Fold each of these.
Amino acid sequence: MSEFPTHPVPANFKDAHINPQQYQEMYQRSIEDPEGFWGEKAVEFLTWDQPWDKVMEYDFVKGTAEWFAGGKLNVSYNCIDRHLPERASQTALIWEGDDPADSKHITYGELKDHVCKLANALKARGVNKGDRVCIYMPMIPEAAYAMLACTRIGAVHSIVFGGFSPEALKDRIIDSDCQAVITADEGVRGGRTVPLKVNADKALEACPGVHTCLVVKRTGGDVAWNDERDVWYEELVDQQSTDCAPEMMDAEDPLFILYTSGSTGKPKGVLHTTGGYLLQTSMTFKYAFDYREGEIYWCTADVGWVTGHSYIVYGPLANGAITLMFEGVPTYPDAGRCWEIVDKHQVNTFYTAPTAIRALQAVGDEPVTRSSRASLRLLGTVGEPINPEAWEWYHRVVGDGRCPIVDTWWQTETGAHMITPLPGATPLKPGSATFPFFGVNLALLNEDGSEIEGPGAGYLVVKASWPSQIRSVYGDHQRMIDTYFSNYPGYYFTGDGASRDEDGYYWITGRVDDVLNVSGHRMGTAEVESALVLHDDIAEAAVVGFPHDIKGQGIYAYVTPMQGVEPSEELLQELIQLCVKEIGPIAKPDVIQWAPGLPKTRSGKIMRRILRKIAENELDSLGDTSTLADPSVVESLVENRPG
Ligand code: WTA
């Protein structure tokens, strides 16, 4: 699997929360007696207003799952109030601005005041328990306040990544029927502004159901104003009381919706609920990062993605941790920024994506080695498979050979880590996410659905429910069943392929469906194709991924112009802009190849396998093309391959 030697548990992790023997014992118990195991952990990790009736009940045929039903708790109470007796004046959130001169600390006491005021402001605007609130924000503390304020009053948040276009924002607001939007005048990233309010205005033209748009003044830039709908955040929030009683929620009440891409159709709203989600995020946070009291923890994700939800906000705050939120990008003002921040705030744990590691590695060691990084104790990675070379660089150069690397495999749908090393328990193999977390019962399946025993490679599935499992696709439970529970009945299908070696280590190989992973961002090939064919001059488009040194995967689009339309540089630019408009800058194709025809079977199905091979430049292994309606199409594509 990997040429690289195994890294044993370092000496300074011998007294970690979980040692090797505990991992074995607890894992076994969690699989044999999940109700007993999770029931105990739910008491240890969370504060409940009322006990549950039953730990869990699920049905992988109907795609249903309930955890701790009947139990009552409030997420903001668990993330803030219960820590106040000991931590009112301890920092909860460190904010580091895009500009290296901007940073601030927010204590747990201050966090409570901010969150309660905003919760009262939302109530004043008529937002009630169960209502959906869209959060379209830059990485500023108000984004975390907004999430927690929703949970305080039982509103359901739906965060839309600030890099998404007005079109993408509109679709998401409409799909989850949001009544309020929280945004900012502008965001700031890498020294440039992001026109969030302008984008929101465009999106809201088509969303008459939104009665309130709360706007944080981040830059003071000029924005248009709709007096009935728009409210300055500061003006409304400042007048509110700092007391707001937390709403008692059922463990199975919805907590948030987060849109993610699948292999077909529009992005789906992954629905997470209250109790199970908070339990698994807080427990994985403590164990996977071996979090210790008072440590400074930094996850570089954006709150617009699930990693930001679970490991910037909910997991850390439920543990009373100190979590750092960074507004900017790793390369601004230069490629040393992350390590400057590590030194400035004495960061102990740093959690990022392989794409960022590769991008920084490509710049060379100097921006890293000019910093001290002596505070670092642990490094983490998430979002895509990490190649062993990048792993070794991260370990040797960033971590000075001293910090274990936790490679955490999970998904928007799983809510929390599913496969991850525990730094005090797991010898590390570079490139492997290692072993399942407690309670996670995995299998690898053959094409025919039979389980692979021992070493082998196949489809990665989960055999039993876990607390932070997706509960439904918002508004479309059938899609939940079709997407996750139909391919292999009785199992949750992850969409990933994986192998297991002779020591039982898991190695994720990537998606086996038509989902791309571009710089750790999930995107359906169908979404990009739909954007491209919106152009009047385009008849058809097919999109595949290809290996990209930095992004992991790049976007390769084959585009067929309408009859009589001449391909041109101008048309190409228009197509790129269309992807940006419909989805966002992350959806820009890296390569567009003009394709007079696409390889199709006689029944008209596009043979993506062949398109992938051409994109990957694997021209010797195109395979059997004899079943194609017109095999000459392939020759022409190969001949005209750009570059
Ligand atoms: C991929 C991100 C290999 C995988 C938390 C999964 C990974 C998809 C890893 C989910 C990892 C995530 N190693 N692949 N450590 N972590 N993935 O929903 O293909 O944005 O299915 O959640 O990312 O992406 P999502």
Amino acid sequence: MKNIRNFCIIAHIDHGKSTLADRLLDYTGSVTEREKQDQLLDSMDLERERGITIKSHAIQMDYEYNGEKYVLNLIDTPGHVDFSYEVSRSIAACEGALLIVDAAQSIQAQTISNLYLALENDLEIIPVLNKIDLPSANPEEVTDDIVDLLGCDPDEVIHASGKTGLGIDNVLAAVIERIPAPKGSPNEPLQALIFDSVYNPFRGVETYFRVINGSIKKGQLIKFIATGKTYDADEVGTLKLKQLPKNEIKAGDVGYLITGIKDAREVKVGDTITDAKNPTRNAISGFEDVKPMVFAGIYPVDTEDYEELRASMEKLQLNDASLIFTPESSAALGFGFRCGFLGMLHMEIIQERLEREFDMTVITTVPNVSYHAYNKKNPDDVIVVNNPSDLPDPSTLDHVEEPYIKATIITKADFVGNVMSLCIDKRGMITNQTYLTPERVELNFDMPLAEIVFDFYDRLKTVSKGYASFDYHPIGMKTSKLVRVDILLNAQPVDALSALVHADNAQNIGKKMCEKLKELIPRQQFDIPIQAAIGAKIISRETIKALRKDVTAKCYGGDISRKRKLLEKQKKGKKRMRQVGNVEIPQQAFMAVLKLN
Ligand code: GTP
């Protein structure tokens, strides 16, 4: 055990985490060129295309240092705030972390939020100044920033380049010398932390774990504490680039487990694995059931595909336990599902997977957060509202709460004013402002999560000319003055377009919604009035003017290739349109409320 090191890499996005990890694998001879290619082919398409790590993985390296053999377990962490619970569990499985900072970009919001997570888990932090090969690198200044942040000695900051491989030997030496060996005892009852799982359609769910105490053996009857279920450990092993089956994984080490589980929901990240016959008395602390943060309706474009959509979602859920869904019906869209996601990225991933892997064409409605409503009569009973149209009659309600987050933003001093006005516009309350250097400022805000869902990133980018980084974590529910803005098309309410918004902004949002929908809904043979309403009160109105006859006539003339193009276009258009009453609504219209500027 004294020669094992468990560590992770934490960094702001694009500071070079994956590149550095690759260099570590190369340097320790853990991967051949051929294997590297295979590994790339194995990982999810989406992950590669987006260039970000969606799921965390672990990999074991063997390394000889000063004549001794070491086992280094690198536990990768997802790079997106949607998966922050998984990040926290991966961090909890380690004794140390490489904190990578881009020598040109310096400390950014995710650097800080991940650092705090690592410090909460008492990890040894090894600062790495990365990309020092860049001509724009600013090693002295950025080292000062790191020293200020960590209170460390400048000599402790390792200069490296994942691109050229410079400093990789020093990184490995620091991992061995500075990160403590795991504690724990192989003789105690088994206690292993699940930090990740991966669905494998052939072998069932692969569970990744870190053994804290005891050991886990092939054939052992084991138990997951949170779910209370028992399984036979059909296969255990270590995670090299490929899985390497072993008879036993002992305290301090990291490995994988296969039990034939076919449903991802049975394997919960953060759960404790123990021996079924001689269980530990203590579950590892920090387990939480992950809760979806963002909800949206998913409907088949063709109502006949409802059952197929259900089957697809069930299959998806088997390999992504964080997706939840319940059937719902909408007066406008018919039968579909209300789905819960970890965040907006997760929602996009599910939507894309439905299309790519299951060949479904779906309409997704405006995402919303989960609200808590309290009835006047029973103010102690919380009514969870995951769909704005489920909000009870406001006159019966005592109050409504919405989820809040703490936002960390790092920007240049020049943009502080802009960022502040944006955050205040988004109902944010500033809680802290720190000058990291004379040019760089960290700002903290408490803000409603709903405001982040609605076009926050884009606007932050605009107001800061791209010089702002942003991260957040949830801080609980707060009372808000919320009202529902309904949209009527052709005098018919379209429930799927309703949104819950703050009362003070309702008028403005209603007006902008009408304007936006006027842009997005194609003209038809008749006038279409668009109205926004709060209860029975109409707050705004626009009209989509009828098409003039000769316009269509002209379209259908012309040569054959143009006609074909037009038909193609229509076919594509149809894929993403829903007929509501006698109005055709395109997919973008359901997202209109997200793009109201
Ligand atoms: P993931 O979030 O896991 O995808 O990793 P990451 O975003 O932290 O960074 P990634 O390793 O994908 O690198 C981001 C970009 O920086 C890529 O274009 C890399 O080629 C580049 N890069 C990474 N390390 C270095 C370095 O040491 N020097 C230079 N010049 N570029 C680098």
Amino acid sequence: ADYETILVERRDAVTLVRLNRPQALNALNSQVLGELIRAFAAYDADPAQRCLVLTGSEKAFAAGADIKEMEAKVFADMYGENYFKGWEQVTATRKPWIAAVAGYALGGGCEVAMMADFILAADTARFGQPEIKLGVMPGMGGSQRLAAAVGKAKAMEMCLTGRMIGAEEAERAGLVARVVPAAALVDEALKTAAAIAAMPPLAAIANKEAVNAAFELPLAPGINFERRLFHGLFGTEDQKEGMAAFVEKRAGNFTGR
Ligand code: HXC
């Protein structure tokens, strides 16, 4: 596949996707979305690929949805084309993916980072939902995912004032999994992704589905869903291999069966 606004590399079992519109601080326009949909679908469909890292540049993960693309649109355009609906194809990715964020992750940029299974942040990362300053609001899930991640007080303050938070505050608030020095961000993300890629792939999908269910289901059906997935993994060869490898004190060799 050939892309113009993103760069896609495969490093063994890890796909590295870089947003690449430096002239617009990686602002997310329809072309970026279309290319991300294709890249994520290709990743999900390729059994040799087991984790994905999405990153931007040192200066910006992404400075938002493309304001210049949206500026002239009216309600009938936005509602008529269900603008941003395509992001649901990205969040439908079944296999694990990580957002590695350095610099600005604003508006849609923050929202895309929050679509990831988790965020690794450089110490230079700045997260914000400044849409209110433009007369709008988050439109790619930000109000919902940010509130789930950091709670009402901080989410409300960020959405109502547009205040950016730095990496440390984001980690304290539970928005990011870990903060690393900016120079080490991509290497650290690739290392983390490689560790995930070495795990039994069906177990990875099941773990992801179960944690995501925590944000959709009440506790009892959530626990039931978890337990059924857990039972289901006993139908895999990788469960036999994983437990045998532990008992035999050797590394497991997982096939995704
Ligand atoms: C289109 C953008 C952009 C964006 C930056 N650029 N962000 N273009 N959409 N979201 C462009 C600028 O116009 C400029 O282009 C170039 O990128 C460099 O940006 P500068 O502003 O010159 O850089 P700097 O002075 O370093 O400031 C960085 C910044 C600022 C603080 C991140 O760019 C900024 O505030 N950007 C907008 C952030 C924002 O409001 N994001 C939310 C977007 S709305 P030129 O051609 O002039 O060089 C959104 C909505 C989601 O995401 C859902 C609801 C609709």
Amino acid sequence: TLNIAVLVSGRGSNLQSIIDNIENGYIPNAAVKVVISDKGDAYALERAEVHDIVPVFVDPSSFGDKKDYENKILEVLGKYDTNLVLLAGYMRILGSRIIGKYRNSIMNIHPALLPSFMGLHAQKQTLDYGVKVAGCTVHFVDEGMDTGPIVLQRCVPVLEGDDEESLSERILEQEHIIYPEAVKLFVENRLVVDGRKVSIT
Ligand code: GAR
């Protein structure tokens, strides 16, 4: 069984979609062992508890510098023999030591069609720019922000009268489809990374 750790900061609906798709058998031979949050009141931690997954709050403000915070995360990942790290609404840049140690074993979901609209408030950036097609991206995490090799993408239309909330909701529905799909492909060892390119075998 492959051990998954999920890093979160908030609501955790993407975490939920992974848990549900493991429980219903769509993602085989995998278990979410631990959910790590940088926010003590993240609803995602409650979701973890409901499913008997260990919730861990790592408070960034209680560490002297970023390195100590990173070490704490590494310690938790090690404790649960983590094979795959999923960022699911985790609103921080992951430290380079974690990325180095789990190269091509960390994925993120981003609510835009990368490489457009990297960073925060991607859906608002999408609306403000006036593009007609929006979407979401699952990618491997490298040292940049939202720059790593792309695994899967889905698009949705931007509709007349959309606001940030309505567009975000339309995108989120697709996030809940492609993140479990990407995790399934990873678990089945079907993702091959070659430079920027990810092929599905
Ligand atoms: C999702 O839309 C995710 O794509 C986005 O935050 C939301 C988290 O929702 N992530 C980012 O913007 C990362 N920069 P969730 O907590 O319900 O999964």
